């Protein structure tokens, strides 16, 4: 490694938490960096490398694997989340260190871009004297909430009498707008601990990158920047959808599920512009059987065309014969190429769980949303979709927490037709343009990425 040399070709190792919702944005970011001339190694777990459905690389991005201690059966083999995370920390630290040692002889690594869910990635970077960059895959608003909990500035559990929560940088929130780990105190303790741990060594990170863009979260980004050097670098949507300069990275992905691409795209090609409701709850959320039934009937009642992603593990909850009965109106697939789908002109609305990637993707591709959050950060994202970005509405639940079929049909109609949805549809177009500007040359995110890249290319300056 020849530090100090002009335009040194820096080598970045990228370490995402091994789930689809974290791999996608970090891989997309890897592509941006690769286009800007960095050498990239993406690191996944051995189990994931063995089982993933799709990976096509380019000369500048290679794939390597470390161990989480469950190389044969993956996370499902762990006794509990606590056990999984503890072993991953231990074995991950060891095997990541081995990987770095191995690279010393050929192409030494200069920087680790780590997912702060794996906060030990930063400790490894420090041990090897490397540049470290935390990459937050969730919104800045959500990170700000977690940070306040970590600093004990937001005390948990919330008092039952507390009707509103005031956190600097954020609009006034109702308790149910907070991430589920905060609102439902005590739920998923291991995951919550991992989330709070993101901040435990963060002050040692050289860079703090967040998958968002400045105009989207201006107030909270500016607020956080007062005490943490956060840099917005998103949306990390593949450049071919957003950035006219780069058109060649369409087929580059890493998928845990197998997308049914041809069937979906052919079906969409046969539909009229903005006539289809796209429905997906991401890679993890599980709906109750009753909720699944209400959703199915809601789609049917709306009388709109629909493309619904029902993962194989969720399929048994579909009402009997539903796909056959609705085959003239709907297509149900186990996984789809979501970005291509959202970018298709046939899509008129997205019923979404509001995972951060899905939210950013819909925003950046100008698709109005019906927000139906399930857990983790999704309620907070839904709040912003409805009240701040005004790009969708949120479904109302009955007293049992169920979103009924009439409500689903109402929301679809609200967003897709008539005067009431006009503002939402207008805002969808507006946000698409603003997202593009952020990543376009000299855009706010592009500048932040440029600064990051040039600091690695010219380490002495
Ligand atoms: C998880 C959390 O649940 C989410 O709340 C958090 O913000 C990120 O991690 P996930 O639930 O999978 O992610 O949702 P999301 O963030 O929306 O990520 C799903 C990704 O899978 C998106 O990039 C989406 O484009 C992709 N996807 C989804 C497909 O490619 N095909 C599909 O059929 C469905």
UniProtKB/TrEMBL annotation:
Q: Give the molecular function GO annotations.
A: UDP-D-glucose:delphinidin 3-O-glucosyl-5-O-caffeoylglucoside -O-beta-D-glucosyltransferase activity; UDP-glycosyltransferase activity
Q: Give the Gene3D superfamilies listed for this entry.
A: Glycogen Phosphorylase B
Indicate yes or no for the key word Cell membrane: no
Q: Which Pfam families match?
A: UDPGT
Keywords associated with the record: Glycosyltransferase, Signal, Transferase
Which EC class does it fall in? transferase
The pathway where this protein functions is:
Pigment biosynthesis; anthocyanin biosynthesis
Describe the reaction catalysed, as an equation. an anthocyanidin 3-O-beta-D-glucoside + UDP-alpha-D-glucose = an anthocyanidin 3,5-di-O-beta-D-glucoside + UDP + 2 H(+)
Query: What Enzyme Commission number(s) appear in the record?
Result: 2.4.1.-
Question: What role does it play?
Answer: Catalyzes the glucosylation at the O-5 position of anthocyanidin 3-glucosides to form anthocyanidin 3,5-di-O-glucosides using UDP-glucose as sugar donor. Anthocyanidin 3,5-di-O-glucosides are molecules that are responsible for pigmentation. Also acts on anthocyanidin 3-O-(6-O-malonylglucoside). Much less active with hydroxycinnamoylglucose derivatives. No activity in the absence of the 3-O-glucoside group.
Please give the family membership noted in the entry. Answer: Belongs to the UDP-glycosyltransferase family.
Protein name per its UniProtKB record: Glycosyltransferase
């Amino acid at each position: 490694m020849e530090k100090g040399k002009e335009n040194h070709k820096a080598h970045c190792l990228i370490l995402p938490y091994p789930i689809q919702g974290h791999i996608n944005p970090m891989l997309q970011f890897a592509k941006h960096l690769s286009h800007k001339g960095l050498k990239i190694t993406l690191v996944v777990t051995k189990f994931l490398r063995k089982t993933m459905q799709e990976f096509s690389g380019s000369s500048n991005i290679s794939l390597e694997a470390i161990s989480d201690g469950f190389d044969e059966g993956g996370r499902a083999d762990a006794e509990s989340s606590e056990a999984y995370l503890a072993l991953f920390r231990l074995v991950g630290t060891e095997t990541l260190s081995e990987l770095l040692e191995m690279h010393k002889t050929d192409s030494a690594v200069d920087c680790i871009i780590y997912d702060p869910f794996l906060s030990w990635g930063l400790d490894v970077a420090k041990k090897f004297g490397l540049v470290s960059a935390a990459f937050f895959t969730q919104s800045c608003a959500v990170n700000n909430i977690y940070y306040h909990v970590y600093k004990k500035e937001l005390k948990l559990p919330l008092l039952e009498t507390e009707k509103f929560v005031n956190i600097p940088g954020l609009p006034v929130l109702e308790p149910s707008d907070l991430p589920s780990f905060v609102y439902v105190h005590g739920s998923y303790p291991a995951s919550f601990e991992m989330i709070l741990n993101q901040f435990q060594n963060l002050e040692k990170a050289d860079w703090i990158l967040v998958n968002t863009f400045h105009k989207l979260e201006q107030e909270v980004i500016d607020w956080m920047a007062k005490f943490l050097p956060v840099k917005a670098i998103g949306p990390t949507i593949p450049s071919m959808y957003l950035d006219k300069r780069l058109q060649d990275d369409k087929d580059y992905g890493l998928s845990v599920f197998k997308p049914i691409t041809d069937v979906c795209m052919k079906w969409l090609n046969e539909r009229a512009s903005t006539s289809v409701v796209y429905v997906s709850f991401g890679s993890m959320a599980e709906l109750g059987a009753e909720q699944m039934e209400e959703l199915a009937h809601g789609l049917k009642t709306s009388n709109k065309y629909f493309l619904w992603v029902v993962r194989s593990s969720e399929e048994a909850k579909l009402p009997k014969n539903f796909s056959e009965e609705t085959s003239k109106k709907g297509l149900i697939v186990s996984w789809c190429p979501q970005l291509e789908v959202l970018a298709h002109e046939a899509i008129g609305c997205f019923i979404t769980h509001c995972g951060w990637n899905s939210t950013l993707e819909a925003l950046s591709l100008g698709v109005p949303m019906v927000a139906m959050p399930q857990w983790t950060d999704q309620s907070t994202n839904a709040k912003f979709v409805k009240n701040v970005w005004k790009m969708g509405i949120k479904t109302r639940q009955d007293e049992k927490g169920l979103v009924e079929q009439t409500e689903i049909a109402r929301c679809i109609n609200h967003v897709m037709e008539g005067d009431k949805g006009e503002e939402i549809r207008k805002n969808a177009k507006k946000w698409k343009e603003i997202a593009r500007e952020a990543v376009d040359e000299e855009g706010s995110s592009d500048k932040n990425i440029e600064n990051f890249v040039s600091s690695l290319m010219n380490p002495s300056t």
